[in-house]
Every structure is written in C-alpha cells, then in structure tokens.
Amino acid sequence: MWFFARDPVRDFPFELSPELPKGGPPGPWVLHRGRKKATGSPVSIFVYDVKPGVEEQTQVAKAAFKRLKTLRHPNILAYIDGLETDKCLHIVTEAVTPLGAYLKARAEAGDLKELELSWGLHQIVKALSFLVNDCSLIHNNVCMAAVFVDRAGEWKLGGLDYMYSAQGNGGGPPRKGIPELEQYDPPELADASGRAVREKWSADMWRLGCLIWEVFNGPLPRAAALRNPGKIPKSLVPHYCELVGANPKVRPNPARFLQNCRAPDGFMNNRFVEINLFLEEIQIKEPAEKQKFFQELSKSLDSFPEDFCRHKVLPQLLTAFEFGNAGAVVLTPLFKVGKFLGAEEYQQKIIPVVVKMFSSTDRAMRIRLLQQMEQFIQYLDEPTVNTQIFPHVVHGFLDTNPAIREQTVKSMLLLAPKLNETNLNVELMKHFARLQAKDEQGPIRCNTTVCLGKIGSYLSASTRHRVLASAFSRATKDPFAPSRVAGVLGFAATHNLYSMNDCAHKILPVLCSLTVDPERSVRDQAFKAIRSFLSKLESVSEDPTQLAEAEKDVHAASSPGMGGAAASWAGWAVTGVSSLTSKLIRAHPTAAPAETNVPQRPVSEGLPAPAPTPVAATPTTSGHWETQEESKDAEEDSTAADRWDDEDWGSLEQEAESVLAQQDNWSTGGQASWAGQTSNPGHKSQESDWSSWEAEDAWEQGWQEPSPPEPPPEGTRLASEYNWGGPEPSDKGDPFAALSVHREAGAQPRRDSWGDDNWEGLEAESRQAKAELARKKREERRREMEAKRAEKKTAKGPMKLGTRKLD
Fold first, then answer.
1. 758 Cβ neighbours under 8 A, 6+ residues apart
2. Counting beta carbons within 10 angstroms of the beta carbon of residue 320, is it exposed (0 to 12), middle (13 to 18) or buried (19 or more)?
3. Which residues are paired to 164 by β-bridges?
4. Contact by Cβ (8 Å): 313, 349
5. Under DSSP, is residue 366 helix (H, G, I), strand (E, B) or coil?
6. What confidence score (pLDDT) does residue 684 get?
7. Which long-range contacts (CB under 8 A, 24 or more apart) does 62-69 make?
8. DSSP SS3 for 41
9. Which end of the chain is more exposed for a tag (fewer CB within 10 A), N or C?
10. 691-711: pLDDT as tens digits
11. What is the DSSP-derived secondary structure letter of residue 76?
12. Tens of pLDDT along 796-805?
C-alpha cells in the first residue's frame, strides 16, 4: 500500500500573488501580496526559502517567526497565520506596504502631510516603548525597512529578526551581516572595550533618530549626514538631537520622548494625533465624551488623509451607531466620509445604516437625515426607497414639529423620481392635499405648492389632469402671499402639461383674478404668467397646426426632463421660504402662523380693497381647541357631507392621531403651539375660508373635476326675491332671472368650480349678509302686519272684543 505525502504549501489557505511589491525590505524575507482563498481578502505574506549553508540566517528567520506570532500590540505588525516546513517559512500578516514605497507614492501624488507623519512616528515610538518598558526586549533593527503601513495609513513596526532580551537571557544581539542594516547601529557598538555607559534603550533610540531623518530627507547615505537635520520640522529638531547625541546616557526613554513631543507646541501635539488617541480608547469613553467628539469630528475630516477616513474613522462611526447609541451626531461625519467611498462600497457600508436610521423615532436623527438626503439619494435604488424609506418618511407629514414637516416636503424633490405609481400618485398626493389645505404654517403650504410644481413632470397623465390645476388654483387663494406667488409660478412651471382648453377656461380666469391682488409681487407674477399663456394661445390660434406640438406633453407619460424648468420657475421658494420657516420656528415656536396679517380680497364693482387687519393671537387651552374642532367639523359635515370622505381622508386623520399619540415631550410643545396658533380669530376665519374652498374645490374628490351644482330645492327664495331697502315691488319675481337665463343660454357652463366662487363672501361677510337678510324679513313682516291692522280698522261691522289691545 502506497502512502502519498500532501504538499503543505498547496493546502495552505492563502495564495501568493505572482508579482512582488516594489521596495521590499532588505534581509532574508521576501514580501508578497496575497489573498485568502476562502474570502478573497487581501493579506501580506513574508516568505523565507530555506537554503543549505545558511543555518545561522535560518535560525534568525525562525526566531522572527516565533516573536511575531507571540507579540500582540496595535502598533506591531499583526500576525494572521503561518507555515513552517523544511523548505520554507511563510508568515501571513495584515495587508501592508513598506514605508519607503508608501512615502514615495504619497509624495508623488502630493498628498503627504506633516500631520500624517507625526502620527506615524508616534505609533513607532509607542511600539518601542512597549517592547523596552513592558517586555524588556531590544528591537535592534529600527529603520525604514522595518516599518510597514496598512491600508488606513497606520504605521506598524516589523523586522523582528534581530530582537533580543534586554536582560541577557538569550545571549547578546545576533549578527546581522547585512550592510544596509548595519549602518543604523549606534557608534558605541563599535567600541570593543564596552566601557560606554548606556541604557537598554539607547541603541534603539539612536536608530529611531535615523528613521526620523530618513522620513523627512530620504535614504540615509552615511552616519555623518545625521548632523544636518535637513527638512526635519523645527518643533521636532530639539528632540531629534537628543536621539542622535554621541552620549548614549542622555538619549531619552521612548515614553519620555513621546511626552516631550506631546508638550504644548510640540510636533505631535495636533488635532490629528488627538483624534487617533481618542479613537483608540473610544470603547472606554463616557457617552457625553463620545457625543462631543463626534460633533467636532466633521470639522477636521477635510484635512485628514482619505485612507485614514475610510478605513479607521468610518468603522468607528458604524460601530458607534450600531452598538454605542451615538444617535444623530454620527450622521454628519458619516456622510462626509462616505464621499470617499465607491458606489459598491457605499452600498455595502453606508446604505444599511441609513435604512436603519430612517426607522428611528429620534426626531433629531430624522431631521438630519432629511436635510442631508442629497448626499446619499443617488445610492438608493427604487425598491429600497419604496419599501424601506418612503413608509417612514411620510410620517413626517403628520409630525407636530413644523421643521420636520417642512423638511419632509422638501425631501420629496429627491425621492419623487424613485417612487412607484402608488406612492407617488396616491399616497404622496393625499398628504400634499392635506398640507396645502390644513397646515397652519403658511411657508409650509407654500413649499408644498412649490414641491408639487417641481415634481409635476413625474406624475402620471391622469394625476396631472386631476391635481395640478386644482392645486395651484387653491394656492392662489391662500391668505399667505408667498403661497399665492407659488401658485402662479406653479402654473407657469407646468405650462406644457395643460391643454389649450384648460388654459383658456381654468387657468387664465384664476390668474386674472390675481391682477388686483393686494400684494405687488403676486400681481407682477400674475401678469407675467398671463402674458405667457396668452402668447401660447395666440400662437395656436394663428397656426392651428401647432396644437399637437403644444399639447404633446399633456397626455404623455412622466417626463423627468421637466425638473429643470420647474426649478427655474420656482426654485426661489424652497430656499427663501425655508429660511422664513426656520426663523418663524426659532423665534416663535408656539406663536401664531406667519399670516397674522391676512390680506383681504379686492371688493367687486370697482370698490377699493379694504386694508389688511392685523389679528392678535390669543392663547387657548388644548381642551378648548378640541371643542372648537368638534363644532367646526360638525358644521363642515352639515354643509359638505361628501367632501373629504370620497378619498378616505378619515383614515389619514386616524393615522395622524395615532402618530400624535406616540410622540414624546415634543408633542406636548407641538400641540400647545397648534392650539395657540389656531385659537386666534384670524386663523379661525382662515380655516373657515379653506373649509369653503374644500367644499367647492376640485381637490374634494381626489382632485377630480367637480359635478355641476344641483338646482336649489323647490320653494327656496333667492336673494333677489327680497326688498333690499327700496320701495315695495309689486312683482315678487327675480329681476336677475333674465340675465341668468341669458347667461345659461349663451355661455357654456364653466368646468372649473373655482370660477363660480364668490371670493368676496368670506365667512364674516356671510354672517353679515345673513343678519341683514333677517332684518329685511322682520321689516317685511312688520309692514304686512300694519297693513292687516289698517284693513281691520276700516272694515264695517261691530268691533270684536280685544281689538283695542292689539293697537
């Protein structure tokens, strides 16, 4: 029976790369790039081939194998695996690059910074301090060839071939026999008498001085060159001179050298070193210290090396979020570091964290995510947006904090291109209708209109037909002047999405009513928009063949190219009104909405418009507000029974109530703000106005076209049937009947319900009209009773008992 020996090198779980890295270390070892066969992760493999006749060198290599395997320190080359056979030695470590090759590449790219060098030298000195002070070991080979750099830019001390014990247990230092390494030996080693008094660290500190000289000046040609510091920074020169002094007794201990360099104005006393030291001890820091650290971290990241941010800062940020409850403070540095990542790496590391953050109930985290969405939206795919992001984002529409509602609206500009049919045309439009009709903050209603104008091109053709004209018409009747301007700009931004018939019958009548608006800015924009639509209608009138070209986008599918046009028309509102919203929220977090001075609509028949009346806000308890809400809802339901129910708005209100019930102490402040805002008389009048618009608006049934008004019930008396202060008419007929019949016979009824609205009849005027009508009825009744009494007095026959009492 034959037994076959297996090749251990072939079964080794790591494989070598055929090409050798440039600038390999001098000595018995050859550095190879490699990878792990199972995962493909990169590693570095040091290979030593055993040859006959070099037993001394083989023993040195085996000693280095043993030392590296047993020594564990963050600043010493990390051992992963190894292989020892009769023919070769393999040492697998983390993926590293020789320091000489690393510095050369960084210098050629122009990215080498003094901050990076200060931290690298700090790490090497710290490793020497560990060996000398904690392990009583002399490295005996500190030089450029013994230092390696990992992918994060961390310097690692290697080259443990000639290490020996400082206590003399293993004999004297081994002989190197390599001239490139012996030139770093201190001058006292050449003294055969051994009379020089030195410390155990003296030789390694001399070699550290040689390393510092090479880092700043390049390869050391000879020992005499150490007398000239060259390009060594001035803050480091005094400490460098201590290292290369002729007297070995005065060379400092590595720990004291670090202390000297970390003194005020020292070479290693900088922000980069401080951040690295904090990251090394972050697991034992207090939560308050971590919060402060992450808040200040983003300010310094721009000046740090890219590799350091990607491979050292980023893992710490991810760990702090996953296990440290760092919260929203990690978002700003996380997204700043994310700019250094490729698309695939961003998907693997950042996106899972972002998706998890959106499900958080922390308001600070939610608003920061919304504010910085443009930094990561390009890496989100559509399924992720629709199933994991959008369902959490829409809760912001129902939040009691105005800042979150505003940021949620603005975030739709980025999310809309990635939303599916249902989320975009149904869910989002439902929330937009609610915000534009019922939100107490004027700037938020304005931004809702702006956002709708910008995403209008992404809507389906049927949704555009139902929504856009009605929504912008509603905005032109908003008491908040910038909202009316946004409505006009919305019409202009989406001009190519309307048919010529809609332009003539729906849009122009609405715009013409704004030409007498109290605000100059509204009138100016209205005139511009009117001229634009009239020019479009005139061109089609002169050349009817242009009709198809002018209406090509009306029934077309969603066209993302429209986004630029919308931005040019209405881009001002998101920034300008956003700042206004922020000021309102900061200055008056519980004050009345911005539209405290509600501009009155111009009075018809040429009468001058009344001056706007300032409305004072009166605080109201939440209980009183609930009573007002119930009474108002009952009144609205009695006048418009099918107004919002057709679109199942009740489920949305239940959702809002459930969200409000789950809020923390923010909710208390938010509801107090709500109560204070809606309790003022001006706002109540505004709500009544919106209620009347809701009853007649095309948004009332999912933005569908309203049906023609039903005729009044039989027996209803028209306003013209009453005597309005003149002499008693003999005929009780309607004097406007002929005009009404003529209008119905000669003109086609308007399809847009907005055209039939009497915008002079606000709720206050409506109450006055009712009071006046009641007074007229009483006067008429009194005159009728007087006439009857006069007839009875002149009647013949005996007077009936009790007649005098009636007088």
1. none
2. buried
3. 138
4. no
5. helix
6. 37
7. 62/89, 63/161, 63/163, 63/174, 64/29, 64/91, 64/159, 64/160, 64/161, 64/163, 65/89, 65/91, 67/160, 67/163, 68/93, 68/158, 68/160
8. coil
9. N
10. 333 333 434 344 443 344 444
11. B
12. 555 555 445 4
Residue in the structure block whose two tokens are 């972050």: 282
Using the structure block, give the residue that is written with the tokens 């030392």: 67
H-type alpha helices, 130-201: 179-182
CA distance 803 to 807: 7
Return d(Cα 714, Cα 805) in angstroms, integer: 39
Pairwise CA distance, residues 85 & 47, whole Å: 12
Q: With contact defined as beta carbons under 8 Å apart, do 453 and 490 qualify? A: yes
CB 499 within 8 A of CB 480: no
Burial readout 331-351 (b: 16 or more C-beta within 10 A, e: otherwise):
bbbbbbbbebbeeeebeebbb
Cβ distance 660 to 441 under 8 Å? no
Residue type, 700: E
Only one residue has tokens 């066209």, namely 559
> Is this structure's pTM higher than 0.70?
no
Q: What is the DSSP letter of 523?
A: H
* DSSP character at residue 722: S
Of the candidates 513, 461, 455, 460, the one whose C-alpha atom is nearest the C-alpha of residue 484 is: 513
753 in helix, strand or coil?
helix
Beta strands in 454-546 (DSSP E): none
Which has the closest alpha carbon to 309: 123, 116, 158? Answer: 116
Question: End-to-end CA distance of the chain, in Å?
Answer: 144
Extract the tokens encoding 763. 């709720």
Please give the Cα distance from 613 to 553 (Å, whole number). Answer: 44
Q: In the predicted model, what is the mean pLDDT of the chain?
A: 74
Burial of residue 3 (number of CB atoms within 10 Å: 0-12, 13-18, 19+): exposed
Cβ within 8 Å of residue 611, ≥6 positions away = 600
Residues 6 or more apart from 74 whose CB is under 8 A from it?
Answer: 280
The amino acid at 760: E
Tokens of 748: 């086609």
